[in-house]
Automatic annotation (TrEMBL):
It is found in: Cell membrane. InterPro entries: Brnchd-chn_aa_trnsp_permease. Belongs to the AzlC family. This is Branched-chain amino acid ABC transporter permease. Coiled coil: none annotated. The chain crosses the membrane at residues 17-36, 42-62, 135-160, 167-185, 191-224. It is a multi-pass membrane protein. GO terms for cellular component: plasma membrane. One of its GO terms (biological process) is L-valine transmembrane transport.
Length: 239
């Protein structure tokens, strides 16, 4: 059933964002734990999450901080991991680019993997949605996610080393990304990009300061782009 009002769109977004609670809670708790282990206090861990609000980049920065990597490497690596947000923004612009400036600014801050994935899927499924409905849906989708990210960052930081390893909270990171990216494998180019990135990341695991992640990301993007060009040429030749 098509969404008809901003309020119903918001509520639909909340419902669609609820499943992410299952991974956001352990994910944020794990970040809080690791932040304390890296030398941050509870307030610093919370501010980290408030300012950066990007789980993968935050984990990358923490790991490099624990390895005593140079500050420039920490910043560059976190930025590289978070460059996907620029692509998310470009992808969202056709849908919400005409919204008021304050809404776009808030949406930019709240653009995380979860809110982007469910929102784009909904916008593609219901192209007749108005801009106010899309904005409402986007904010609804992020409502169950962001507050819990802050809250459980603090919980994890306060618990510190009291959480036993048997809880295996680190499962949340790979499970979250697998759940989000699997539905996005719609073309051969997507599959090629993911496959190349995985292979290169495994080959580059020994690169200092986790720079293999950046190398793998670049390799995946190049491979995906080349696959897309190859597919486009095949389509042109077949016409």
């Amino acid at each position: 059933m098509a969404t008809t009002t901003p309020k119903s769109a918001y509520l639909r977004g909340v419902v669609d964002g609820l499943p992410f609670i299952l991974v956001i809670i352990p994910f944020a708790t794990l970040f809080g734990l690791l932040a304390v282990e890296a030398g941050l206090n509870v307030i610093e861990a919370l501010v980290f999450s408030l300012v950066v609000i990007a789980g993968a980049a935050q984990f990358t920065a923490l790991q490099l901080m624990q390895e005593d990597a140079p500050t420039i490497i920490v910043l560059a690596s976190a930025l590289a991991v978070n460059l996907r947000m620029a692509m998310y923004s470009a992808s969202l612009t056709p849908y919400i680019g005409s919204a008021p400036l304050w809404q776009r600014a808030l949406a930019a801050y709240l653009t995380v993997d979860q809110s982007y994935m469910v929102s784009v899927a909904q916008f593609e499924k219901e192209p007749q949605m108005t801009v106010p409905q899309r904005i409402a849906y986007f904010f609804g989708a992020v409502t169950p996610v962001v507050p819990l990210w802050y809250i459980f960052t603090v919980v994890g930081a306060m618990l510190g080393s009291r959480v036993p390893d048997s809880w295996a909270l680190d499962f949340a990171l790979p499970i979250t990304f697998l759940a989000m990216i699997a539905p996005m494998f719609r073309t051969l180019a997507h599959v090629v990009a993911a496959f190349v990135a995985v292979v290169v990341s495994l080959l580059a695991v020994g690169v200092p300061f986790s720079l293999g992640i950046i190398i793998a990301g670049v390799a995946g993007m190049v491979a995906g782009a080349q696959a897309e060009l190859w597919l486009e040429r095949r389509r042109e030749l077949s016409q």
